Amino acid sequence: MHFIEAKGASIPAIGLGTWELRGRTCARLVEQALKLGYRHIDTAQIYENERDVGDGLRASGIRRDEVFVTTKVWTTHFAPNDLERSTRESLARLRLSNVDLLLLHWPNPHVPLAETLGALAHVKRLGLSRHIGISNFTVALIEEATALCPEPLACDQVEYHPYLDQTRVLDACAHHGMALVAYSPIAKGRIRNDQPLLRIGQAYGKTAAQVCLRWLVQQNVAAIPRTSKIERLSENMDIFDFQLSEAEMHQIFQMRSAKGRLTDYGFAPKWD
């Protein structure tokens, strides 16, 4: 298992994203993923599947201390008292005494960031989460958050794949010793038929998605591909037996653009 190290956190390089997975399907995929060797599961309050993720975790029989569990606080719970209360509710749904990583899911300009980060740090000090971090934060917000937070921030979880240029966010994370965790790492499946990636993969007997995930890991980025197909679970994990050359890495970097973003909402910050 390959880990991304940041601020004392050892984040398994490949995890399972669970957005849009619910009920028995979600629990079964989490259970299968863990049985196949995954040790990193990502959920969030807004996904409404924390209970299912917890069920899958228990059904797998894998020891709790071997699995890195992330959840995210939704923006309506950023007032300090609300943040702690909602974290405790997340833990009750997961049936865990703590999570490994607790993130602020999106920036919320309506609550002072200093107050939210103070509450996030407090939750960590209470032992409800081993590490804390942010998600969907821009470079300016990373700078603000790292300056304001009384405890170290382990990561920024953002959309990242070959079609989206995230150079500035990557550099900001590196500058602050934070990890970058990539969601939608295979561009919501669009990568699968990408001809340049398919061509690179042929040399290694790998799929375009595997090439893409390998490209991320070689940048010291953790990736949390979501899949609803059990057969894809093994494919996404099977990326540690080959290495892309500098030329291949460069070729994939050439695919990026500022317009490649797939996840954007009205409440999103002004992106870099």
Overall pLDDT metric: 97
Structural class: alpha/beta
Order of helices and strands: EEEHEHEHEHEHEHEHHEHH
**Could you tell me the strand content as a percent range?**
15-25%
Query: Any idea how many domains?
Result: 1
CATH class value: Alpha Beta
Q: What is the number of E strands? A: 10
Summarize the main sheet. Answer: 8 strands, parallel
- Give the overall form: globular
Please bin the fraction of helical residues.
25-40%
Distance between the termini: 32 Å
Q: If you consult CATH, what is the topology?
A: TIM Barrel
Strand order of the largest sheet: 3-4-5-6-7-8-9-10
The fourth-level CATH homologous superfamily is NADP-dependent oxidoreductase domain
Low-confidence stretches: none
Query: How many helices?
Result: 10
Task: Give an account of the 3D structure.
An 8-stranded parallel beta sheet has the order 3-4-5-6-7-8-9-10, with helices on one face. A two-stranded antiparallel sheet has the order 1-2. It is globular. It contains 10 helices and 10 strands. It has one domain: Alpha-Beta Barrel (TIM Barrel). Helix 7 crosses helix 8. The protein has 272 residues and is of the alpha/beta class.
